[in-house]
Specification:
The complex is a heterodimer of chains A (115) and B (114). Chain A is mainly β. In chain A, 0% of the residues lie in helices and 50% in strands. By secondary structure, chain B is mostly beta strands. Chain B contains no helices and eleven strands. Classes of the chains: A mainly beta (115), B mainly beta (114).
Chain lengths: 115, 114
């Protein structure tokens, strides 16, 4: 069965500093990998996804993530954080193939941005 | 294009009451699912459907029932609400295209069982 671990429950970062959120997955084959962001009281917004090809994926809002098969990781990065990036971030994995779109989510990482 | 629409957005139930969370999508997606979100646990899959008339259980199906009579609608029924079902519920729909699965989420339904 697939699973996702986000080792950091909470991260505090200064505005303008870089941000890296860690994600480790467990899956027997090539995974689909996703990062979602959720602001308080809101739904989930897709930041980026990895399906195949280039292991460095660019997303919205200046985020990027790198798929490293050897480390079973899909870490999310942003070079310079804005106050509006304060939110909860979820990494998710889905199995590949027709008829199978079930996502397994990590527990989430809450990001606080200080001025 | 409305995407995935969930209703109601907020609901308070008494223990033992039943209710249905509605989910509709207008994108002609084959796949629909329901997740619940609890603090510190991320989102967990309750039930899913790969097409009209086909449903299956996810990770946490107990206490919930679903049906898929049309492609557009995928309601989630709580048969006898319990405080443990206090949660935020998200409906999702998806299709598989050339760039992999694209999964769309509704805005969530906040349910409190007292």
């Amino acid at each position: 069965a697939q699973s996702v671990t986000q080792p950091d429950i909470h991260i505090t970062v200064s505005e303008g500093a870089s941000l890296e959120l860690r994600c480790n997955y467990s899956y027997g084959a090539t995974p689909y990998l996703f990062w979602y962001v959720q602001s308080p009281g809101q739904g989930l917004q897709l930041l980026l996804k990895y399906f195949s090809g280039d292991t460095l994926v660019q997303g919205i809002k200046g985020f990027e993530a790198e798929f490293k098969r050897s480390q079973s990781s899909f870490n999310l990065r942003k070079p310079s954080v804005h106050w509006s990036d304060a939110a909860e971030y979820f990494c998710a994995v889905a199995s590949v193939g027709w008829g199978d779109y079930k996502l397994s989510f990590g527990a989430g990482t809450t990001v606080t941005v200080r001025a | 294009n409305a995407g995935v629409t969930q209703t109601p957005k907020f609901q308070v139930l008494k223990t033992g009451q039943s209710m249905t969370l509605q989910c509709a999508q207008d994108m002609n997606h084959e796949y629909m699912s329901w997740y619940r979100q609890d603090p510190g646990m991320g989102l967990r899959l309750i039930h899913y459907s790969v097409g009209a008339g086909i449903t299956d259980q996810g990770e946490v199906p107990n206490g919930y029932n679903v049906s898929r009579s049309t492609t557009e609608d995928f309601p989630l029924r709580l048969l006898s609400a319990a405080p443990s079902q206090t949660s935020v519920y998200f409906c999702a729909s998806s299709f598989q295209g050339n760039s992999g699965n694209t999964i769309y989420f509704g805005e969530g339904s906040w349910l409190t069982v007292v």
